[in-house]
Write a structure and sequence with these properties.
heterodimer, A: 318 residues, alpha/beta, four-stranded parallel sheet, 10 strands, 40% helix, 12% strand, elongated, B: 360 residues, mainly alpha, ABC transporter involved in vitamin B12 uptake, BtuC, globular
């Protein structure tokens, strides 16, 4: 109970404080970086205006109390050296290990609980309704970064995080590094891989991802043909495929993104009725990927691309 | 113990026995419907084989005909390992849900009763959710969802029955139904809580709840078959007693029907059917209500008609519904629970309008 009271009082103080400063960020210059001394944050150009999927957002000074409700943003924040400024992350943010995990939920965010951390910036991947409005009411700026559509979108989000946290340079280094590594990996993929078919599995109920999704854009980049793209009529980037369609389209490569959630592996796939007819299964080209890495669009995407390229070498040399 | 056969001999000729039984025409029509649905289910799907080639492939398995299979190995696997078991499971699940619904409506004299009335759906949902959320069985590579759903369904109904009984309500259906509603609310609350606490598996839980005929091959069909046969046998055995129950508990008792025991047996058999259906296909709504009522409106209200026809029509109906799930937006699929309600509701409205009589 005392904790709850402190939290409420804190939220109120934050709100009052911002109101006293003129609120609404109408005159950001008067609340410049000088008012919040910070050792760990480089003196970048604050206030800064950044673009999120919830519109533009003015960050008055380098944030020192960031709450991340997005597991992708958590990975990116730590990668660009803003980890010290992060005071709380949601219950799904399990990487990196030093991230301050709390029981905050990104899917069902509780505005009061978030405000209780007295954050000066909240990053989210999703607003179920009321998150942004609720936090803005108590003067807490929210940056929403929806799932990226492709690699460029992912780079842009990392750079936005860099600008919002005062780590422009590091963010640039991270995205430059990702670009270079991924370009190199794509170039190193065997020519024979071009036009091979891939099936990306999200769950044992055969939900998959089309090229319109972030993960699908990576297969597209590698020149692979995604069997889920046939399911246009489903009207979603994540259609549920028929087993008989998967078997008949005979993918050369199967990527399992349900190894952690559902205990799937090359062995369990081979045991499914009819699946041993599939080339990928018969030739051992079933990739066991990390569910988390494949469902995020952060810096570890490079690891995933490397995993797929490695598998393609096996397929290509056949 | 008074067997159904002994009773039948002693029953007076009113009012149940006055209801006409099943006619040959209806029996033939229902049989034809099931055969037609099965053939369509086998011939059509997201992978187009051509009906003629499927027919030749099927005939090639009949000895002494000398028909060569036109299928490749992959096509063979798709038809016989994926599509055929799914059709067979659809037949079983549809038959079980529809007959269980009919039985519940009879035993509770309530036209709105469905197979999930006494907490079967909520219990199964909770069981499956627990397994999905806590990865039970994953480490050893066993899919425990069917087992948990089955146990949950039986458990849910068991609790509701015990609760109703403790309130002295086995003889009055209202108490039992209220106990079922209570248990359903409670178990659903627990299920929702567990699900929302573990948002990373919401998609999996949700997809299970919307229902899907699993395609894990013939094994599921073989496991479901004995349960389906047993429950169907018990329900069909009691079809005449359900007619007698329709006149009311008091009157049925005065005719020598052991009302409480009949109710327990019928509920147990219907629950067994529901639990088996739920275990392999998730929660498929509406079949248990629509099919028996459509049968009543079209063919007659005696349980000697409603039970066997519901069994057959339910089987065919679910196969056709699943066919739509597989083909409407192929190669993607629709959840079957959505399709049963989407098609079933308007169809039922038409039947209601054209016949204008309703009642269990």
């Amino acid at each position: 109970m005392p904790h709850r009271l402190t939290a409420l009082a804190g939220a109120t103080l934050v709100a009052l404080g911002l109101a006293a400063c003129g609120g609404e960020g109408s005159d950001p210059a008067s609340t410049g970086a000088a008012s919040v001394p910070s050792e760990s944050v480089p003196a970048a150009a604050f206030p800064v205006t950044v673009e999120g999927d919830n519109g533009s957002l003015v960050v008055d000074r380098a944030p020192a109390r960031i709450v991340s409700l997005s597991s992708t943003a958590t990975e990116s924040l730590f990668a660009i050296g803003a980890g010290d400024q992060v005071i709380a992350v949601d219950d799904q943010s399990n990487y990196p290990a030093e991230a301050p995990v709390t029981d905050l939920s990104g899917f069902q965010p509780n505005v009061e609980a978030i405000a209780g951390y007295e954050p000066d910036l909240v990053v989210a991947a999703y607003d179920p309704g009321g998150l942004v409005k609720g936090l803005e009411k108590v003067g807490i700026p929210v940056l929403v970064q929806d799932a990226a559509k492709d690699l460029d979108g992912a780079y842009a989000q990392i750079e936005t995080l860099g600008a919002a946290t005062g780590h422009v340079e590091e963010a640039g280094d991270v995205t430059d590094g990702m670009r270079a590594e991924i370009d190199e990996l794509v170039a190193s993929a065997p020519d024979a891989a071009e036009g091979l078919t891939v099936y990306h599995e999200l769950g044992t109920d055969l939900f998959s991802a089309t090229s319109a999704t972030f993960i699908g854009s990576i297969y597209e980049r590698l020149g692979l043909e995604n069997i889920a793209d046939e399911a246009k009529k489903a009207g979603t980037g994540y259609p549920q495929l028929s087993a008989e369609y998967v078997v008949s389209s005979n993918p050369s490569l199967i990527v399992l993104a349900d190894t952690k959630c559902c205990g799937q592996s090359a062995a369990t796939v081979a045991k499914r009725p009819g699946w041993k007819q599939i080339d990928a299964v018969a030739d051992g080209n079933v990739v066991e990927a990390d569910d988390d890495v494949t469902s995020r669009w952060g810096p570890r995407t490079v690891d995933f691309v490397a995993l797929v390229v490695e598998a393609l070498e096996g397929v290509g040399s056949r | 113990m008074l067997g159904a056969r002994g009773l039948r001999a002693r029953l007076p000729a009113r009012p149940a026995a006055a209801l006409p039984g099943i006619t040959v025409a209806w029996a033939l029509a229902a049989g034809a419907f099931v055969v037609l649905a099965t053939l369509l289910g086998l011939a059509l799907g997201p992978v187009g084989f051509g009906a003629g080639r499927v027919a030749r492939e099927v005939l090639s398995h009949v000895p002494f005909l000398g028909v060569d299979s036109p299928f490749t190995q992959t096509e063979d696997a798709i038809l016989w390992d994926l599509r055929a078991p799914r059709v067979a499971l659809g037949l079983l699940v549809g038959a079980m849900l529809a007959s269980a619904g009919a039985a519940y409506q009879g035993v509770f004299r309530n036209p709105l009763a469905d197979p999930y009335l006494l907490g079967a759906a909520a219990g199964a949902g909770l069981g499956a959710t627990l397994v999905i959320v806590y990865d039970i069985g994953d480490p050893v590579g066993i899919d425990l969802r069917p087992v948990a759903a089955f146990a949950g369904a039986i458990g849910g109904v068991g609790i509701a029955y015990a609760l109703g009984r403790s309130l002295g309500g086995v003889r009055t259906t209202a108490t039992l139904i209220l106990a079922g509603v209570t248990v359903t609310c409670f178990l659903t609350a627990v299920q929702t809580f567990v699900q929302q606490r573990n948002t990373e598996t919401v998609q999996e839980v949700y997809s299970w709840i919307l229902g899907r005929l699993e395609t894990s091959g013939w094994q599921d069909v073989l496991i479901a078959l004995p349960y389906a046969a047993l429950s169907a046998a018990v329900l069909l055995w009691h079809r005449r007693l359900l007619d007698v129950l329709a006149v009311g508990d008091e009157e049925a008792s005065s005719l020598g029907v052991p009302v409480a025991r009949v109710r327990l047996l019928v509920v147990a058999a219907a629950t067994l059917a529901t639990a088996t259906a739920v275990a392999f296909s998730g929660l498929i709504a509406f079949v248990g209500i629509i099919v028996p009522h459509a049968v009543r409106l079209l063919a007659g209200t005696s349980y000697r008609i409603v039970l066997p026809l519901s069994l057959a029509v339910g089987a065919g109906f679910l196969v056709l519904t699943d066919l739509i799930c597989r083909t409407a937006i192929a190669p993607a699929e629709l959840p079957i629970g959505v399709v049963t309600a989407f098609l079933g509701a308007p169809f039922f409205a038409v039947v209601l309008r054209t016949t204008r009589t309703v009642g269990p």
